[in-house]
Write a structure and sequence with these properties.
heterodimer; A: alpha+beta; PX Domain; three-stranded antiparallel beta sheet; B: 38 helices; about 70% helix; Sorting_Nexin (chain A); phosphatidylinositol-3-phosphate binding (chain A)
């Protein structure tokens, strides 16, 4: 007759509350790299991007921020992280030396297609970095994401915002 | 692991791989086929464990992991593609299930199978296999159904990935479809009863709902729209739980209202997600039977007050009301009628207000629409309860008043919804008089602006005309005319720049004119009141309007006079009443003249009235009749400039009919007036013909009404005809002269035959000779000439045939 099948004895679990079931997650983090703009002329010409952060992680001072950064700022961030932490920092998109040679028939690194490709690369990079729990404690990352200008003479250190 | 759920960040590796969705899908399908083949081969050899191993490999595709160069790579499957893989896999899985059942029936024992499948290393295959084996265990009835079901639904918690979890649990639902206990009390405790089934489904439902709602938080914000679309595609999976519940026959109203619905609503309300709430609330309405809804209406509507603000509550309430409207279940018990318990309508009415106050940002047009659904319910389910209708309208009116909403601009959404609402009683009652019994109908209608009210008026009138609604009492007529006021007067809120297409205006006023013909009281005195009332309403508001509205009123009055004459034997005062009617008509027609409308209209109305008067011929009607005909003649003199001949012909024709009513003095005056005007026409042929027509005034009439004196005057007829000949002689155009002579000849023939002693054969012969002489100088090739000649021949032939009468004619 009906019996219990083998191994149906389970450890009893605490039932989930409705809040636990339905509340939005507490670990949202999104960084968008968007709106590239090219400034200046001739040798002084450069492209910068809007870096927009949206998060609810308590380690960040504000829930939303928007700053403008150029490629060299990303390079600075990567260097700081490599120096200051034990993280294997992901690579940045290529510097595209070839495109920067003189006497090109096109606009080199200011071509729309190239800028879009670089934008995607930068977005991947910053998301990987910003999502890393150790990197999230680095002062340089917070400055990069939240401060309007980067102070390159800052004192490296950890952030404790919990 | 990064502490984020942003999937795009940790799926970077896969985006760089070149696998497109389709390629992944095709690969997965091929690999499923291979695994399934291997599984079936093993089963053929009765190697169950090998079979399970291959099944496990196959099920791995549902983990959406692909092997690339021996490295696990997550697949990016859309819900649609995942569904396809799911269908392929579960199809093949059925072979395994059949095999196991066969083997059990052959007497094999697999006591440890349930444990064995749990050694499968990956969670997705493990749980699919557990469910498959669990179902087999239940089917062969070897083990406790109750415990297995509970275990399965609990174990599925192991998958928290929304898409995979939803499909896994859907598989659970699919497998247990006909296996859930469905009895109130079980003979065998291990078998479980209805409560176990309810717990099973409710737990599965809340878990699925959780996963479904969570999908919303997966991935980048900018993909939100796409995710919402995908979630909507998956909603059926969640809804299946409710369908299963509704299929359990042991769930009765009590169980539903005490357990099932409260716990469903708890999940729906708390998930606080508009897509889930909108779908599930609708789903509850659709899957459960009407009598359940009737009993739990209050609970359901209370839950509605707690829904997310973005939920389109209008749709939810509308489907619920539609359900109630169509149901054959009795809405209210007999006790509710007697014991003052709340009826279904009361509950709706109260809860809708609650819902509205729970949403402070609700748009006004949505509020109106909600009340419209309740109004619909009130009229359709309680056709006799006008008080219910009044209540809904009163609440809506209060809302407008609280918001200070007046002159609601037409074409605004509020106006559109309000008009929709106000049309419902018109459409459903098919009797616009009922609207007059609804106190707040007019009050609410007054909130519309001028254009909106006009739209309503036209709708209302068209409905009355379509249904041929009879307006029998003066009160109703009065109420109705007040309601359609915007069509009758220039309201104070008529926009200064309001312009209307002329055709639209005519159409609108024609509607009002047609309404007059719907006003018919069986009581003649009341009918007179109605006509007077309408006259007062139409007043003197614009000559453009009375041009269309007053003439039908005059005709209705004429009709009433006929009716009085018919009942003259029962009503002593009928002639006095008729006198009143004609005085009313006289004034009404004069109003048209004062408004300086084309005189032709009043002219014809007077002539028409004269004929009606002489047909009714009540005592002492001579004076008013003289007024009618003399007004017509005055109009002819002063205001009619064109087509004088036609007009004088009409006057002469009318006079011929009515002369016998008059005494000698009036009679002579009228005849003389006609002759004078006929002779004064501008053109000679017109003069000639008109004077010829006047001969009728001296011959063909009935004897005089007052003293019976014959109105035949042979001498005068002769004089007129002589005058005609004289006028004809003055015509310069010979063909015209010829034509006139032929016509005059016919008059002579006519009066000769009528034995007018003043007409002699000699006169006829003289005229015939004149015509023959005329005809010699004519251009006979002309068509017109030919016709006149033919006519002349016909006249001669006529006399030839009656040669006894016309003895002595020289042909």
């Amino acid at each position: 007759m009906s019996t219990q099948p083998a191994t149906t004895a389970r450890i009893s679990i605490r039932p989930q509350t409705l809040r636990e079931a339905y509340d939005p997650p507490a670990n949202v983090l999104e960084v968008d790299v968007i709106n590239p703009e090219t400034h200046g002329v001739a040798n002084k010409r450069f492209t910068d991007y809007e870096v927009r952060l949206r998060t609810n992680l308590p380690v960040f001072k504000t829930k939303e921020s928007s700053v403008r950064r150029r490629f060299s700022d990303f390079e600075w961030l990567r260097n700081e992280l490599e120096k200051g932490s034990k993280i294997v920092v992901p690579l940045l998109p290529s510097k595209a030396w070839k495109r920067q040679l003189p006497f090109r028939s096109d606009d080199g690194i200011f071509e729309d297609e190239f800028i879009e490709e670089r934008r995607k690369g930068l977005e991947q990079f910053i998301n990987k970095v910003a999502c890393h729990p150790l990197a999230q404690n680095e002062k340089c990352l917070h400055m990069f994401l939240l401060e309007s200008t980067i102070d390159r003479n800052y004192t490296p250190g950890k952030v404790r915002n919990t | 692991m990064p502490p984020t759920n942003a999937s795009n960040t940790h799926n970077m590796a896969s985006t760089s791989s070149n696998l497109t969705q389709d390629k992944q899908l095709q690969d997965a399908k091929v690999s499923i086929k291979t695994d399934a083949l291997l599984m079936k081969k093993s089963l053929d050899k009765i190697e169950l464990l090998d079979g399970i191993k291959h099944a496990s490999d196959m099920l791995n595709k549902l983990s959406s992991i692909a092997k690339m160069n021996n490295v696990d790579v997550p697949m990016q499957l859309s819900p649609k593609n995942y569904y396809e893989i799911y269908m392929n896999v579960t199809d093949e899985l059925r072979h395994l299930e059949t095999f196991m059942i066969d083997e059990f029936q052959k007497g094999f024992k697999f006591d440890d199978l349930y444990e064995l499948v749990q050694y499968s290393p990956a969670i997705i295959p493990r749980l699919y296999l557990l469910i498959t084996v669990g179902t087999v265990y239940i089917k062969i009835q070897e083990y406790s159904r109750k415990i297995i079901l509970k275990d399965l639904v609990e174990m599925c918690r192991g998958v928290q990935h929304p898409l995979r979890g939803l499909f896994l649990r859907n598989y659970l639902l699919q497998c247990t479809k006909n296996l859930l206990p469905d009895c109130v009390v079980s003979d065998n405790e291990e078998d479980g009863d209805i409560n176990d089934s309810i717990e099973f489904i409710l737990l599965n439902f809340s878990e699925m709902n959780k996963l479904w709602v969570r999908m919303q938080h997966q991935g980048h914000t900018r993909m939100k729209e796409k995710r919402e679309q995908e979630r909507k595609e998956l909603r059926l999976l969640v809804g299946t739980n409710l369908v299963r519940l509704s299929q359990l026959e042991s769930i009765n109203v009590d169980l539903y209202s005490s357990t099932v619905l409260p716990r469903l609503l708890e999940q729906v309300v708390n998930c606080n997600d508009e897509i889930a709430q909108e779908y599930l609330m609708e789903c509850i309405i659709q899957v459960f039977p009407d009598e359940f809804h009737v009993k739990t209406l209050e609970m359901y509507l209370k839950a509605c007050t707690n829904l997310h603000e973005d939920v389109n509550i209008r749709n939810v309430i509308t489907s619920l009301v539609d359900r109630f409207i169509k149901t054959t279940v009795k809405l209210d018990t007999d006790e509710t009628a007697t014991e003052q318990q709340a009826t279904i309508f009361d509950i709706f009415s109260r809860q809708i207000s609650e819902i509205i106050s729970s949403r402070p940002n609700m748009a006004v047009h949505d509020i109106v629409a909600l009340h419209t659904t309740v109004l619909n319910l009130a009229i359709k389910c309680y056709p006799d309860r006008i008080d219910y209708v009044d209540k809904v309208l009163e609440i809506t009116d209060t809302i407008f008043n609280n918001m200070n909403l007046d002159h609601i601009q037409s074409n605004s959404q509020v106006s559109k919804e309000l008009i929709k609402m106000l049309k419902i009683p018109i459409d459903l009652y098919k009797d616009i008089l009922k609207l007059l019994r609804i106190k707040y109908y007019t009050i609410l209608y007054e909130h519309l602006d001028y254009v909106g009210r006009k739209t309503m008026c036209q709708y209302l009138l068209n409905n009355a005309l379509e249904n041929e609604t009879k307006i029998e009492s003066p009160d109703d007529a009065d109420g109705l005319l007040q309601l359609i006021n915007p069509l009758i007067v220039d309201s104070s809120d008529k926009p200064a720049d309001y312009e209307q297409d002329a055709e639209d205006f005519i159409e609108e006023q024609t509607l009002v004119a047609r309404l007059i013909h719907l006003m018919q009281s069986p009581n003649l005195d009341e009918q007179f009141l109605i006509i007077n009332l309408a006259r007062k309403h139409f007043g003197a508001f614009g000559k453009d309007r009375i041009r269309y509205t007053l003439p039908p009123l005059v005709f209705r009055a004429y009709e009433l006079a006929y009716n009085y004459k018919q009942t003259s034997e029962q009503d002593e005062k009928w002639d006095k009443k008729c006198d009143k009617i004609f005085k009313f008509c006289f004034q009404t027609i004069n109003a048209l003249i004062k408004a300086e409308l084309p005189a032709e209209l009043a002219f014809r109305l007077f002539l028409n009235g004269s004929q009606v008067l002489c047909e009714i011929a009540y005592e002492n009607c001579e004076n008013i009749l003289y007024e009618f005909i003399s007004q017509a003649i005055a109009l002819y003199d002063e205001d009619i400039a064109t087509n004088k001949f036609n007009s004088i012909s009409l006057i002469i024709g009318t006079c011929q009919k009515i002369l016998h009513i008059f005494g000698e003095e009036n009679c002579d005056s009228l005849r003389q007036n006609c002759v004078n005007r006929a002779a004064k026409l501008l053109k000679k042929p017109d003069q000639c013909r008109a004077v010829a027509l006047c001969t009728n005034l001296f011959w063909n009439c009935k004897p005089r009404h007052s003293d019976g004196v014959s109105l035949r005057d042979a001498q005068k007829v002769n004089e007129c005809l002589k005058k005609c000949v004289k006028i004809a002689a003055q015509c310069v155009d010979t063909s015209a002269q010829f034509e006139l002579h032929v016509e005059i000849l016919n008059y002579y023939i006519h009066y000769f035959e009528m034995q007018n002693e003043n007409i002699t054969i000699d006169m006829l012969n003289e005229l015939i000779a004149k015509i023959k002489q005329d005809s010699t100088g004519l251009d006979k090739s002309q068509n017109e000439c030919q016709m006149i000649l033919e006519q002349f021949d016909r006249s001669l032939n006529y006399m030839r045939k009656k040669s006894i009468v016309f003895d002595g004619i020289l042909f």
